[in-house]
Amino acid sequence: MEFNGFVIRSYEDHNDEGQFSDKAQVLDLERRCEIGQSKRVFLFTDNLGDPICRIRNSPMYKMLVAECDKEVVGVIQGSIKAVFFTPHKPPPPGLVVKVGYVLGLRVAPPYRRRGVGAALVRRLEDWFVSNDVDYCCMAAEKDNHASLNLFINNLRYIKFRTGRILVNPVRNHPYNINSSEIKIQKLKIEDAEAIYKKHMASTELFPKDIKNILKNKLSLGTWMANFKQQHYPLRSSSSTTGGNEQSSWAIVSLWNSGEVFRLRLGKAPFAWVIYTKSLKIMDKILPCFKLVLVPNFFKPFGFYFVYGLHHEGPFSERLVGALCKFVHNMAMNNSKDHNCKAIVTEISGDEDDDLKMEIPHWKLLSCYEDFWCIKSLKSKKNNNNISNDHDHDDHILEWTNTPPIRTLFVDPREV
Ligand SMILES: CC(C)(COP(=O)(O)OP(=O)(O)OC[C@H]1O[C@@H](n2cnc3c(N)ncnc32)[C@H](O)[C@@H]1OP(=O)(O)O)[C@@H](O)C(=O)NCCC(=O)NCCS
């Protein structure tokens, strides 16, 4: 189908390395497109030679390209998965809906403001509808005006939640964790799955196939922290789904995103560049001071993504802090193998500031307002004469009108 002189078609995923292959052109487009319009920093993605790498771990995925005179000028990726639906209530068995995620939208700078971005999203929505998807979602930083204008004003998405993306550089010294007070243990996959299903399944957009995420080779494990005086009974008589409701605990899982794609800093404030360079020089001159150094973010780097973060009980924010430090120390030890230079965590914007304060991060690299947007595909389905069993618009209203719950589940496959 042709729009304004450009054609939208499926990405051709074959091994042709030629200069005009889809693969070569999409990789080149990614290199030229910064993410967002942030005044603080620009990040570029490096797909390690595989443009489709970010969505390959999703149950269903698709990539489309926009082509103008045989040149690839735009790209978009989408994935589909089943999620538990009822907001704020434990999900009755079987109440599951399909959600499509819009990811990796890029338009080459000379072709912007010509309708390419909007056409790519609309064609991806058609693919969602043909696969019986009920809702589609996207996320963008608050200051990415181009993207938010496109989705909210032009394509009628609704902002429904705000996340805070916290980024912590992997330093050259470990954090201290008070091991006399806090116990951290690695969980078996089945225990982690049972705990997530019991405590997080009523979280919005919680994936039905949580076990597949936990079992994925990119998932490095799940850890739980308790205060030593109390514990969460993993295998007590009340089974793994039981739990001492009085005790404080926290849980996180870790995903090795750097195995799939790398990031690179394109621009950083001058003061930051000077600060990091002077630290390096001082460390060379005065190694005895053991200065805390930050990695060189101008070279492509990998990162670990903390997902499934949940905490309950008094002072449990401190347990989250201990887990984040533990994960940092692990990344520091593995950084040679994984080129892991940062830990990324996303928490709900409605979590109180205590949690944010406990999670070590650098403000300059972090984004405190990541807008999550959603759209019902009901009208598109009806236009296509596909029957529709749910009252989606009511649910959208329920989602947007109810106060947001504290916890977000961020699926690492959509990062
Ligand atoms: C965001 C992006 C994909 C938009 O692509 P595009 O092809 O220029 O978008 P369109 O031409 O289809 O724009 C449709 C509408 O979106 C809005 N829009 C797009 N770019 C805008 C901008 N720079 N400022 C304000 N509004 C903008 C406008 O409402 C526009 O309609 P109009 O041109 O009639 O005013 C493109 O700017 C881009 O690749 N940015 C860098 C990567 C990125 O941030 N991707 C999004 C990740 S979530």
Protein model, in words:
The chain is of the alpha+beta class and 415 residues long. The protein has two domains: 206 residues, 3-Layer(aba) Sandwich (Aminopeptidase), CATH 3.40.630; 201 residues, Aminopeptidase (3-Layer(aba) Sandwich). The chain contains ten helices and 15 strands. A 13-stranded mixed β-sheet has the order 1-2-4-5-6-7-15-8-14-13-11-10-9, with helices on both faces. Strands 3-12 form a two-stranded antiparallel ribbon. The longest helix is centred in the C-terminal third of the chain and has 23 residues. The protein starts with a strand and ends in a 14-residue tail after the last helix. About 3% of the residues have low confidence.
Blueprint of the fold:
Elements: E1 2-3, E2 6-10, H1 22-32, E3 42-46, E4 60-68, E5 71-84, E6 96-107, H2 116-130, E7 135-141, H3 145-154, E8 158-169, E9 182-187, H4 189-200, H5 210-215, E10 219-227, E11 249-256, E12 262-267, H6 270-285, E13 302-312, H7 316-338, E14 340-348, H8 353-358, E15 367-376, H9 378-383, H10 392-401
Bound molecules: coenzyme A.
* Coarse structural class: alpha+beta
Q: Kindly report the name of the CATH homologous superfamily of the largest domain.
A: Gcn5-related N-acetyltransferase (GNAT)
pLDDT below 50 for ≥5 consecutive residues: which ranges? Answer: 236-243, 386-390
Q: Provide the helix percentage.
A: 25-40%
CATH topology term of the largest domain: Aminopeptidase
CATH class designation of the largest domain? Alpha Beta
Overall radius of gyration: 22 Å
- The neighbouring-strand order within the major sheet is 1-2-4-5-6-7-15-8-14-13-11-10-9
Report the mean per-residue pLDDT as an integer: 83
Shape label: globular
Bound molecules: coenzyme A
Annotated CATH architecture of the largest domain:
3-Layer(aba) Sandwich
Tell me the number of helical segments per DSSP (H or I, 4 or more residues long): 10
GO molecular function, one term: acyltransferase activity, transferring groups other than amino-acyl groups
InterPro entries: Acyl_CoA_acyltransferase (IPR016181), GNAT_dom (IPR000182), Plant_NAT (IPR052810)
Pfam families: Acetyltransf_1
Organism: Cucumis sativus (Cucumber)
